[in-house]
Design goal:
Largest sheet: 7 strands, mixed
Oligomer: single chain
Structural class: alpha+beta
Radius of gyration: 23 Å
Length: 423
């Protein structure tokens, strides 16, 4: 692309949407190749345990590809010798197994922080950590329940509390000694990294400056246009000096192009931003997607507000009576804007997708209403749900219900977690 010095706010939005692949026409069939392509574009897939509608790591692929068979993704993520592994990349997330050495610096930092403290948890529970490491070395990858049985009979005159054993596993995972060898349901199997990944990959190390430069490169490509804060948050790297050094190297190499974006500011001054050299600046984008709160498009709330004028928080931990938008409200993207938020629940016993609440960000055109309604239809199809029921809570529910003529209605509100159906 040609060198740019300035971008309008609308151009920056379109760059960001295109960089995430959300503007592409959805494939007629989704298989392993399409899933891998989407994962490669994002570089990271955040994990979250909330399962009201669908587990969060399934949603970004649906947002980009439309309905797909989640068992295809499971086969990629949870194989015994997986192509993708879990690590603390953004937070807990899947990354390509070949990228795990890029986080060797983080493993070393975790070890120094937690193991180097003589008064810390690891030092105080050294016997548990050593025992867990020995169990995995002797027996290979294990589910927590399998380790728990031995933990309860491993000490004369008593046993270790299970929470202590689980904590030891998590620290060994953070330190890089342990890797996740798949899951059963959502329960992890823990194994020594050398057993899960092989000696060559488990032992590989990338020097910290090189690793951070590569991670910044990937974040810049995934975002299209970004500030230093955006690039740092993609991998939760708190060393601003290291981020700026990596940016400087990438500018010198011609991979990043300094730009200013209209309306982007920091402390009242124009924010410094960089455009990736491969980023497209489309004249328009056609996109429609329901997003998870942990999609790279919106997971950094400061960026979401800067890009879309979209102030976002999830209200899981907000007392029910004080919720404004719902328990687990999901942003809805149409073209280059966040147009709505919908709180969805998959009611599997009744085969119903429940729209617990729905809200517009601004007054929508009729075409936007239809496109959001179509995304709800696709969401129900993807989850194998036969019906849709729309609540009466939110300024978007009546228009969406009218655009879904076969939908039923139910009553739900901030304090209603088990709404009744109204036929």
């Amino acid at each position: 692309m040609t060198t740019r010095e300035t971008l309008s706010a609308a151009e920056a939005r379109r760059v960001a949407v295109a960089a995430q692949g959300l503007h592409r026409a959805r494939p007629a069939r989704v298989g392993t190749r399409q899933l891998n392509d989407a994962l490669r574009r994002m570089s990271v897939l955040q994990i979250d345990s909330v399962n009201v509608f669908a587990r969060s790591h399934y949603l970004p692929l649906f947002s980009r590809l439309g309905p797909y068979d989640t068992t295809d993704l499971d086969r990629l993520l949870f194989a015994r010798r997986p192509r993708y592994v879990e690590y603390w990349a953004h937070v807990a997330a899947f990354v390509d197994a070949a990228d795990r050495p890029l986080f060797a610096f983080r493993m070393a930092e975790f070890r120094q922080k937690y193991e180097g403290d003589p008064e810390g948890w690891v030092s105080r529970h050294r016997d548990v950590v050593d025992w867990v490491r020995g169990e995995l070395a002797e027996r290979g990858p294990l589910r927590p329940a399998e380790i728990e049985r031995d933990a309860r009979r491993s000490r004369r005159g008593g046993w270790w509390e299970w929470d202590v054993v689980k904590e030891a596993l998590e620290f060994l995972w953070l330190f890089g000694e342990v890797a996740i060898a798949g899951r059963r349901g959502f329960e992890r199997r823990y194994g020594l990294a050398v057993d899960v990944l092989g000696a060559e990959l488990a032992g590989r190390d990338v020097p910290r400056p090189d690793a951070i430069r590569e991670l910044v490169r990937r974040a810049a490509r995934a975002y299209g246009v970004a500030t230093a804060a955006d690039l740092a948050d993609y991998w939760r790297i708190r060393d601003r000096g290291a981020i700026l050094a990596a940016v400087s190297d990438l500018v010198e190499q011609g991979e990043l192009i300094p730009v200013s974006v209209a309306g982007w500011s920091t402390a009242g001054r124009p924010a410094r931003a960089w455009l990736h050299r491969d980023a497209r600046v489309p004249r328009r984008v056609e996109a429609a997607a329901i997003l998870t709160p942990f999609d790279p498009m919106v997971w950094f709330r400061e960026r979401a507000e800067r890009l879309f004028d979209f102030a976002y928080r999830i209200e899981i931990y907000t007392p029910a009576a004080r919720r404004r938008f719902g328990y687990y409200s999901l942003p809805v993207l149409v073209d280059d804007g966040i147009v709505a938020r919908v709180d969805l629940k998959a009611d599997r016993p009744t085969q119903t997708l429940r729209v617990q609440s729905a809200w517009w960000e601004r007054e929508p055109a009729s075409a936007v209403v239809e496109r959001v309604a179509e995304e709800l239809r696709q969401a129900a199809i993807w989850q194998g749900l036969e019906r849709i029921s729309v609540s009466r809570w939110g300024d978007a529910v009546d228009q969406l219900a009218a655009a879904l003529p076969r939908a039923s209605r139910h009553t739900a509100g901030p304090a209603s977690e088990s709404p009744s159906v109204e036929g």
